[in-house]
Specification:
Blueprint (H helix, E strand, L loop, with lengths): L10 E6 L6 E2 L1 H12 L9 H4 L7 H11 L6 H18 L5 E2 L3 H10 L3 E5 L4 H10 L8 E3 L11 H11 L1 E10 L2 H10 L3 E4 L15 E3 L7 H12 L1
Parallel strand pairs: 1-4, 1-6, 4-5, 6-7, 7-8
Antiparallel strand pairs: 2-3
Helix pairs in contact: 1-4, 3-4, 7-8
């Protein structure tokens, strides 16, 4: 994708995925899944059984639970349970969800260097904003967009590009941070370097999807790495 020439009035920007990247939401999402399925007599499902699908949304988690239990599932059943899932999850935000270790310090370092920040998630926008607000993190982000903000969503690169635009960021001085193939494919299609965290919600190691870099802790998201990746993308 061809990006516009750098506008010096725009700020360098780091865009984060939410679930599994910025915030560890798995315990609360799985709690909502268990609440949803208890009426159908399901045993309690733990994180190890379904954790890799947490980042794919409630519908995927519900479908996976039925497949694991070797029980019949159809679209109508999934949609009915999904409504219950969303209601329970929204009512409990933020629950015990917390930012990943070191991420707030990494944001502070980059902020001192002039970067601004945004969130680009496939989670519904209202829920994403509610989570960030209730964790008292809203002031850190110049834009938060969700899977229902536009008529397109990740891995469509327009979701990322439009998020950068809403934040007032410079797409030529941008970096994406994510935990999944969806995040990596989105950033690549947008022509933006991407750092993948290897502690998120995916069933395959993120290195298999060839991100620009992989980190195991936010202490590794240094200004040196950020500047190196952006410079390499600029050619």
């Amino acid at each position: 994708m061809t990006k516009r020439a750098t506008d010096t009035k725009l700020r360098p920007i780091i865009i984060f995925d939410l679930d599994g990247t910025l915030i560890d939401t798995a315990p609360d999402l799985i709690a909502s899944l268990n609440h949803t399925l208890k009426s159908d007599g399901f045993d309690v499902i733990d994180h190890l059984a379904i954790g890799s699908l947490v980042g794919m949304g409630g519908r995927a988690m519900i479908e996976r639970a039925y497949v694991m239990a070797e029980r019949r599932v159809d679209a109508e059943l999934v949609e009915r349970h999904h409504r219950v899932f969303l209601e329970h999850y929204a009512a409990g935000i933020p629950g015990i969800s917390l930012p990943y270790p070191g991420v707030l310090e990494a944001i502070a370092r980059a902020g001192e260097a002039g970067f601004i920040f945004a969130i680009c998630t496939n989670k519904p926008e209202g829920m994403a904003k509610s989570l960030i607000e209730r964790l008292s993190l809203s002031d850190l982000f110049d834009a938060i967009t969700g899977g229902d903000t536009f008529s397109f969503r990740k891995p469509d690169p327009r979701h990322l590009i439009e998020t950068i635009g809403r934040a007032g960021g410079d797409p030529d001085r941008a970096l994406m941070v994510g935990d999944s193939r969806t995040d990596i494919d989105t950033a690549k299609a947008a022509g933006i370097p991407v750092v993948a965290v290897d502690f998120g919600y995916t069933d395959r190691h993120v290195s298999e999807f060839e991100p620009s870099a992989v980190i195991s802790h936010y202490d590794e998201l240094t200004l040196g790495l950020i500047d190196k990746l952006i410079a390499a993308a600029q050619g």
